[in-house]
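Homework help board

Subject: predicted structure for assignment chain

Our instructor gave us this sequence and asked us to write out the predicted structure in token form, then describe one feature. I got the tokens but I'm not sure how to describe them. Can anyone check?
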Amino acid sequence: MLKKYILTFLISMVPLVELRGAVPFGLSPLFGGALPKVPLYILCVIGNMLPVPVIFFFARKVLMWGKDKKYIGKFFTFCIEKGENGGKKLQEKAGRGLYFALFLFVGIPIPGTGAWTGTLAASFLDMDFKKSTIAVMSGVILAGIIMGLASMGLFGAAGAIAG
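My token output:
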């Protein structure tokens, strides 16, 4: 069971997969059965939020340094463009509600959004660290709730009842 907790925690830290992949994994019967929901949820939120300060303060510097390097340049350029484009879209759509838009961007679990991309966008937009971290964490909490409900089949059951 400890192995599943560790794997779930590590999955929640992986870019693009994050909590959105860790919650369904933790609830699956793989590696000894489903984990208890509350500890799983807390573990996934902590794992997803752990890289946020590093991303906010250092990712942009590392990406700018590596964008012209031979082997890593294309990937680093891709990450820079993703962060800049995400930041521009947030700023255009949000106006004064930028932190609320960041919350929604991170909280609605669709591919390409999440704590990593949201934090990178906040860094590129020179947003306030404390406010953006609160927005990202709130978004991670929302995404965790949505993914937990989806993994337990609640949305499918609601659709079957309504349809």
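Reply (TA_rk): Your tokens look well-formed. For the description, you could write something like this. The longest helix spans residues 129-151. That's the kind of observation they're looking for.
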